[in-house]
Amino acid sequence: MAGRYIAIWFRHLLTDWYVRKHPDYGDFPLVFSANQRGKQLIVATCKKAENLGIYSGMAVADAKALFPTLQVTHYPPDQELQLLTALGQWCIRYSPVVAPDPPDGLLIDASGCAHLWGGEQHYLMEIMLKLKAYGYDVRGAMADTIGTAWAVSRYGQEAMIVTGGLERKALRPLPPAALRLDDVLLTKLQQLGFHRIEDFIHLPLNALKRRFGQTFILRLKQALGAEREDILPLGVPPVYEERLSSLDPIKTDKAIIIALTNLLDVICGKLQKEGKGIRTATLVCYRVDDQVVQISIGTNGASNNTAHLLKLFELKIPNLAPGPGIDLFILQASLVEDVITAQEKIWSAGGSADNNITKLLDRIESKIGPGSIKRYQPVAHYWPELSVQAVRTGGNQEKNKEVRSIMTGGNQQQVNAFRAGGTIESHQQLNTPRPEKLLPTPLPIEVTAPIPDYPPMLFRFQNQLHEIKKADGPERIEREWWLDEGEHRDYYIVEDAAGRRYWIFRLGHYAVNQTQWFIHGFFA
To answer: Is the predicted pLDDT of residue 239 greater than 80, yes or no?
Structure first.
């Protein structure tokens, strides 16, 4: 299928924006000015000022002398690009590929989009009427090439939709400036009497190249479709994206669910064929009042199950504000991954346990918020605060099985070992429980101990004195000398007079007036 492109020209972009921003401005001629080469020159005009003979590049003093009521506003740097970017984002409802064309235009890749609006005529008219309703003076054209669409939008006088294959015919009556040439080339063409494209389009390309250079040939070929021209879109559209438009605005949750189901069926069908699944998806809804609302979901494991994904979206739909109605739905799978299918037992009727756990986690996170469920796995470090790290849930099926078997059928020794970190196997031979709450960084405490290598009798933590009644230890944990240098730790489990139990340690060997003690955890 041949590509189709739309070029939109905002004839008075800055002044239209200013009037739109200040609705009580009035009907005075308006211009924007900037300091150039030590003079205040006009850089943008409104339609009324243009009709009075005021033009870009004219000195502000000369214009004010002719028209004392002229309103002059300071030119905001880079304002055109910001406006075009915002307008381009708005135009994404009509095509996923939209690019700014500074200083006063937009380019839209309309390939395969027009039929959603009943044909190219209605499609282009819809865009133009909406932009004009916002107060912008615009012209737009559609063609098979970006160059022809750009030329016709700015210099065309007849049909603004160029039928495929008729680019040469559409370009012939237009001036050379329609080819997006620089001023030097335009001056040279003017001097040679080439006032229209038809004056030179029939000449051999080699002769034109010798006279006008490679840039001239490139622009001519791009307009005729003999040379490829790409546009850089505002945002690269996701590879997996589906759209669904509605003739009548949709307001009810039931209708939104029906539309979402249709989109999920299509996108999940594609993912299943490629063995992939959704990790993050967003439903973008364009309302008839030109507002955009959206909801997003995330999964703990790649999923292409329509029913499961729909349930996650259904939990978010009450937060969606359809307002006066939604006329366009876009479902984007912004993050997809390969689906790892676990082999199931022949006699299993309940499906994979890992799959069921992942679905449960997805539903819980959808209700209480993303990132609210955290999973940790052991790391090969001696220091307790370094022996565990956070990992995303659903990412390691083997570790899921290990955790599930311990938490459901393991003994307390295994559970404590897993909570503390390190490898589970390394604690199976030790009767050393670990605290329920482990501080990420040990905190210093003041301790009174009778003799070296004895547990303390008292310790002070956060200005509170604790009298120790029971103690167990020491358990020595060495520092990893191949990573850094320093002292070992001697840990004690102590219980105070109130029955509260703590995990404390002495750093290094006992030394008078130099021993350092720390608290590292709290038992339930």
So the answer is: no
